[in-house]
Amino acid sequence: MRGAWHESVSREGLAPVARASAEACPACGATGELVAGACPDCGLQLA
Ligand SMILES: [Zn+2]
Fold first, then answer.
1. Cα distances (angstroms) measured from residue 31 to each of 5, 11
2. What pLDDT was estimated at residue 6?
3. Which residues of the chain have pLDDT under 70?
4. Which of 10, 31, 32, 46 has its CA 20 to 30 A from that of 4?
5. Measured in angstroms, how far is the CA atom of residue 16 from the centroid of ligand 1?
6. What integer pLDDT is reported at residue 24 of this predicted model?
7. Which domain holds residue 46?
8. How many domains does the chain have?
9. Which residues contact residue 23 at a Cβ distance below 8 angstroms, ignoring those fewer than 6 apart?
10. C-alpha 23 – ligand 1 centre gap (Å)
11. What is the pLDDT, as a whole number, of residue 25?
12. How far is the CA of 1 from the centre of ligand 1 (A)?
């Protein structure tokens, strides 16, 4: 299940940030917990 979800995210690439349910970063695809609302990998503000 997790694999399929990851595949979906990478396929959609630049998904709208408004899709808050998907926590993968739209810029780099990182799925870690946000740090102060920002991607822990590239620093993009997501929240
Ligand atoms: Zn990122």
1. 11, 15
2. 64
3. 1-2, 5-23
4. 46
5. 14
6. 87
7. 1-47
8. 1
9. 31, 33, 34, 46
10. 10
11. 92
12. 22
